[in-house]
Write a structure and sequence with these properties.
Elements lengths: L1 E9 L5 H15 L3 E7 L11 E3 L4 E5 L2 E5 L5 H11 L4 E5 L6 H8 L3 E6 L7 H14 L4 E4 L2 H8 L7 E2 L6 H5 L13 E6 L8 H14 L3 E7 L4 H9 L5 E5 L15 E4 L9 H8 L4 E4 L2 H4 L8 E4 L4 H12 L2 H15 L4 H31 L5
Parallel strand pairs: 1-2, 1-6, 2-3, 6-7, 7-8, 8-9, 10-11, 10-13, 11-12, 13-14, 14-15
Antiparallel strand pairs: 4-5
Helix pairs in contact: 1-13, 2-3, 7-11, 9-12
Amino acid sequence: MKVALVSPYDWSVSGGVNNHIAPLAAEFVRLGHEPHIVAAGAKAAKPGICPITTIGRPIPLRVSGSVARITLSLRVAGRVRKFLEEHDFDIVHVHEPFMPQLPIQFLRYSTAVNVGTWHAARESNFVYLYGRRLIKRWATKLDGKIAVSSAADKHVQKYFPGYYNIIPNGVDVEHFARVAAPLPEFEDGKLNVLFVGRPEKRKGLKYLVRAFVGVQREVPDTRLIVVGAGKFDRYEAAVRNARLQNVRFRAYVPFDELPRYPHTAHVFCAPNTGFESQGIVLLEAMAAGMPIVASNIDGFAGVLTHGVEGLLVTPEDAPALASALVDLLRDPARRQAMGERGRERAQHYSWDRVSQRVLSYYERLIYERRMLEREQGAAAADPVVS
């Protein structure tokens, strides 16, 4: 199959949707298909495992606590139309279908089988709420709809009810499960708690910093390791103000180095406050065999069962977070059991499994399109209306 994978976001910036599309394309290539990635971008993209085309200069917009770099230029319409005329795609798969401007323009001009994937989970959506009437005309162009989780499905159902096939984001299970050498600087007998995430409010790091005061009071020989892309200046200041010891910050850790951190730590903590459609960081930690303490939000509860792979606590509750961390830090046998169950759970989200589910959905939609066209052709040829 020839498949266009369309992202509304700047391809030069790592993010959830782009990090979904790239490995999905790689699996398609491995299985003998022909993906072509299209995304926003002011410059031509570096060559990848498949062709990559950038259309439209992206600008930063704040969305649900994050900054999204998308293109708002109406000039992309002509380029999209020309691009589709030059390629004969079997599938046009748009991610975040109603995010301006690329996905909408692809739906506008595509005559292929069109598929949309919804990734986000938010309390509300300004674009959907006020642009619903205009968006509905493009919604009718979708032959198939995917939500990456029940949380994402719940969000989009509020504005555009219907059937959404739930196919999760994949995880590079092998990358995180591989035996990685622990970091020597943290191999000193202390119990390490690991946080991985950007320095954004919704990641809940401030609650973990507060909780860690209580953790160190109950289990003194502990350390908090904070890993993420971004500057953690304000959190480092909070740590100093709280006079916390043994808190280490590591920004911009390369992807190849990431597995060393879970293989160095004893408990993974995700204190996020919301807006998480699926617990990717949880699954990566689970693939590495880590027990988890996480906020009880939809995106996390969908991949982790309380008391099985880890513990779920009330969001924004530092004392509850501290209590759960202390319970696991004091119980190595329980940590090991949860880590083993987490490894098993993570296998269901490997990219080879996820990509095959997406391809099977494509095949069903193509078959349904052919059947519909056959029926319409037969009805046009037969003047008798039953």
